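seq as requested:
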Amino acid sequence: MDKRSEAMRQAVAALESGGSVQVFGGHGSGKTVFLHRVAERFETRGWRALKIRGNRSFSGTPLMALAIAGVVSAESGRVGAVAAAIDELDSLLPAQRALIVVDEPELVDDASGGVISELLARRRIALIVARAAGPRKQEAADFDWLTDPSGLGIRLGPMHYDDLSRIVGEHVSGPIGSAAMSQIFASSGGNPGLASAITASAVHEGRLVDREGEWGLTGSLWSDSLTPYLESVLTTLSSPQWDALEMLALLGIVEAKTFLELNDKDVPVQLEEASLIEFYPADGQLLVTVSPPLLVDYFRNRPAVARRHRLSEELEERFQGDRQSLARFQPRELTSSSDAPFVRLVHEHMRNRLILAQSEWERAPSKATAAQLIEVSITAGAPQEAIDTLFTVSESLHGDEAASVRWALLRSEYLIFAAGEHEQAIRYLEGEAHRYPRLGGLLLTRAFEVRSSVFRSGDAVDLPDPTNEDLDPRVRSAVHAVLGMHFMFRGRLPSAHQHLVAAELFTGRAESVDQIALHVLTSYFGDSPHEARGIGERGHARSMVSFSSVEIRGYNYLNALMGILDGRTRSVEEAIRVTLSLGAPIRRPPFVHITLLVLGTVLAARRGDAARVALFTAQLSALDAPDSPVPGGSRAWAHAQILASDGRPGEAADLMQRDADSNWERGLVLTAAFNYLIALEFEPTQERLDASRERILAVDSEYFSSFLEYITGIVASDAQALLSAASRFAQAGRFGHALTASRLAGAVAEAAGDTANAKRAHALWSQVSGNLPHDDYSEIALSASTPRFTTRELQIATLAVSGMSNQEIADELVLSVRTVESHMHRLMKKAGAESRSDLGSRLPNVRPGGRWD
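struct tokens:
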């Protein structure tokens, strides 16, 4: 259930008991839509709703708000009509099942407010009010008649990426490309009203166009046509508040301390209460940014040269003053913020890097400054034409060997992502290597990496000898790193680990997130999953405060892969959502995009979420990139999971086995063994086990031998083997696997009348689950045939698991109770649940608070 659905459920519950609810949020947050849906829900159940809306033009006209709402006695507007209006309302609204709905109460005329206040004093009537977010103490006098300290308060904050994507997609009646949606999400700050305005403007002006069934951007989201909307957001600002906001927009990402020093002490507080700025913690600092972020574009595009000059002079004057005398600020406790401000900060960080690289290039054109600008442009997803031009104009420029080699490495990367010319890239790298006697080995190692990743795992004898002390330390480090990759591909994980450690001896640390990924994967599939998770979690934390899109994507990829194998689905959802919200194309690190789409498809298919399966598979089909050479990034896994979830496990197993055979022939032993295990989980037969056992054991890893014992126990219905595998999983820290194996061991033992092993299995399951964070790990069921559920069925399942009755679910989703009962009957039958309480265990990925839409 998303936050707005939960807010709706809470509001309905409060109003049913005759209570009051205040809904507040910024301009465009959806307050009016929320009120309309609440009123509609009650009206469909036979309640009488009196709907009152404030109007600035009529706020000084007595009884006008009531007259517009249809109260006949109020139409004269005379003072004597007040008593008649009270009596009319008293008779109009029934003793039970009456609701008063007030939108923008600060603009309701005093006489109408007085009538409602008097009526509420006489009798208990359910009341819901929507008001703008802001400092309540300043607004109390405007609508004192609504004050109810015991009432429920609901804040409508920014929407999540997925929810906003759905709304924007409905606006244009089609899917929005991830690059365009990322910009809409970041610019709107997750505000649905502003996102809709941005989309409408972009479509009308031809900046958002339909390209073969997917909407994409042809230019900037900013347009002067958005000025009226944004100025309506700013209409109540005082001059100091306006100056502070414009100053912040012009400065970009600013430390909170700096912003506070530049303004009077009350101004930042006022702007935050008005939801016009947001604070974001980053690496021990507190940053402040404009909200909604599109205001930055508004201020930067305003033709206000004189104002900007004055603000610049003020900045210089302030910084020359005594900072010690300026007011200090203690921010309130920070809660988890929406993705949208974070995405905007990442975009702003990349924009600043582009500006700096462009400036350096224009100031001093060279191979070094060109390489820096090209690298940033590739990461930022710049158009291929712009990057091609940069390569063309910089090709003949002077550069030292290090700069020239870096330029050549980027050229090969460009050949790969721009045209998919992997063979041409390899030839180019090998042809250029001889030109650089000191660092040419870096080009050879890159050629070896590309060949091994895309074609067949190469022969290590083709690489320079990393023990040769005459080689440049950078080359020796790179050779060790690529040998680590090579041995990981071959399933020789201890050897891979040794080379990766050796690579760091020359630099003191892993050089890139790509190299760190090798460490993580080697440790996770080897004997150190705890270490792998720790590296992933720490790296993710660092990336989120560095605003580096490459590192954010890289660590989210690693954590999503480990998360889905551990059974930690929440971390998978989070990683996929945040990474895709940053936009596409995802050129760096390599294989991140395809792996996240595969994992998203697998997770959606396990849940029976047909809509998400269709979304992810469409993106997979459109992605022009090879499968990843490491586990988790094979398209076959996505398609096989769909088959298995559709009740066709044999076909799924055959597909995975063919893909595993293909990887084995390419020398990708680790990925082949991983895919053989998935095939066995889909269809655990003795024949399949005998055919793949030797290849699985070719990986030097406790993980694979434990998993093979687990599969052997399933095939033989051997409780002792399953219990042994469960114990090994638990001891190694593979808790999702341990939960799955111990549960199956218990079931097999009970079926065989083996009470002793059944008790041991139950004890192990209880011990493992009791020591895990709540709702963090779940059992892993790759092979389970999951019936396909509709979006509506998944919504109902989530609400049912949350403990809601059929009537409450009907109210929540605006359905009849009979319809809910019919859905519940089909749900129980599909899930194989004998009772309502059994539904949660049968659908482990459906949980209270889970988000399906």
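Residues 136-141, 319-337, 781-786, 847-853 have pLDDT under 50 and may be disordered.
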